[in-house]
Amino acid sequence: MFLRNFWYVAAHDHEIGREPLGRMILGEPVVFFRKEDGTPVAFEDRCAHRHLPLSMGKLVGDTLQCRYHGLRYDASGACVKVPGQDTIPPAARVKTYPVVERYRWLWIWMGDPALADPVAITDFHWLDDPSWGAKGQYLHVEANWQLIVDNLLDLTHLAFVHETTIGNAALVENAKVKVERAANNVVVTRWIIDAPPPPTFVKAGGFTSNVDRWQIIDFVPPAFLRLDVGCSPTGTGAPQGRRAGGINMRNLNAITPETETTSHYFWGQAHDWDIHNRSTTDMLVEQITIAFLEDVAVFEAQQRNMTIMPGAPQVEINADNGLIQARRILQRIHREQGAATRSAAE
């Protein structure tokens, strides 16, 4: 079951153009394209005539023409032309979806269109803020979206999965951890004081001695995680808010369910030093990509086991506190949206 009354990231803005793009979102096939004036459009990727995906068709002006029999649909989803006949069947139309471009991403609303308020889009301003250097990436993951959320809320795994890039033993043994939960938000704060910097941080900041490292994970439903991460030389006051002399980054994550067992993983890395040096941004993204591909291998192995052994028991440990709180929020929202749907149907 998916939470539909939320904005989800559907694509990078540069992916959407005059060539139709088909993508499965929350179990529904959607086609994206831009009108001649650049306005993005999204509607059901299925011709109302014989179900061929409209993403296989082509644009004719601001209409999308089906490849099979040439039916054309305008941006409202209405069929406006049926070759060989003058009368257009009233039912010849497809479902449309609200879309908004923001933070270099295209956002889509899969639920009740009347509730699609762009004000509710989660803040990822670091991706296009001129005060930050940033770059976005995409991964397709053969696993359920909640496995990715769980992973990002428990960073103890960095010590074991990412020891050649962003992890080291201090993340588990020396971390001071605080978990704070609000109605629709979980914040996990981790400090690792006076510990060796991991390899990626050495490359980024040139550290030659121990550092004070922070990881502040901010989760908002259904699947958005903004990580404030970095480090400063030990004793320079980072825990008290003085981060000068260190490196300050944001790791930005938007996970969109494709199906119950596959996910679209949109992410980006932002930094507030050397912001006009593209090589710095590329180096950071390259290092994080290595780490995230290691994560993908973990997610997909988990999913395979969960598919083979559905309902197998699992234990919880202290490191799971943040993800447990997030899942409780999601369970509550599922109940609330389910109740609202039932009430509307009565």
Task: Tell me what you see in this structure.
It is a single chain. The chain has 346 residues and is an alpha+beta fold. The strands form 4 sheets. The chain has a 7-stranded antiparallel beta sheet. A 4-stranded antiparallel beta sheet has the order 5-6-7-8, with no helix packed on it. It has a 3-stranded antiparallel beta sheet with strand order 1-10-9, with no helix packed on it. The chain contains 6 helices and 17 strands. The chain folds into 2 domains: 113 residues, Rieske Iron-sulfur Protein (3-layer Sandwich), CATH 2.102.10.10; 204 residues, Naphthalene 1,2-dioxygenase Alpha Subunit, Chain A, domain 1, CATH 3.90.380.10. The model has no long low-confidence stretch (mean pLDDT 93). The relative contact order is 0.14.
